[in-house]
Amino acid sequence: MNKTALITGATRGIGKQIALTLAQNGYDIAINYRKENDALKETKKEIEEKGVKCLTVQGDVSNFEDCERFVKEIIEEYGKIDVLVNNAGITKDTLLMRMKKED
């Protein structure tokens, strides 16, 4: 069984390169996205060309319920998540332990 990586903000830039590098190293990839677009489709294709699986999961990472739902989708598909790369562009200027669920 391959290791699985969930990457937010992976359709371009640093997130995309992280996804491609992990795929090159044999990780199955789950990409979170907010809106379907051509960059998402191209990234998925490039990842799958590396011989690994790529699951795209829709959801807004700033919404707790969306995160719960798409994490469950990934676990149903792959059985686990080994690596999480939080790359989506969201800024909350406080420590995680001080954040509320809404944050």
How far apart are the first and last residues' alpha carbons, in Å? 34 Å
Beta-strand proportion: 15-25%
| Overall geometric form | globular
- Radius of gyration over all CA atoms, rounded: 13 Å
Structural class: alpha/beta
Largest sheet: 4 strands, parallel
* Average pLDDT rating: 89
Characterise the protein shown here.
There is one protein chain. By secondary structure, the chain is α/β, with parallel strands linked by helices. The protein has three helices and four strands, in the order βαβαβαβ. The chain has a four-stranded parallel beta sheet with strand order 3-2-1-4, sandwiched between helices. Helix 1 runs parallel beside helix 2 (38-48).
What characteristics describe this protein?
103 residues, alpha/beta, four-stranded parallel beta sheet, 4 strands, 18% strand
Give the helices and strands, then pairings.
Blueprint: E1 4-8, H1 13-24, E2 28-33, H2 38-48, E3 54-58, H3 64-78, E4 83-85
Parallel strand pairs: 1-2, 1-4, 2-3
Helix pairs in contact: 1-2
Task: Offer a concise description of the structure.
With 103 residues, the protein is α/β, with parallel strands linked by helices.
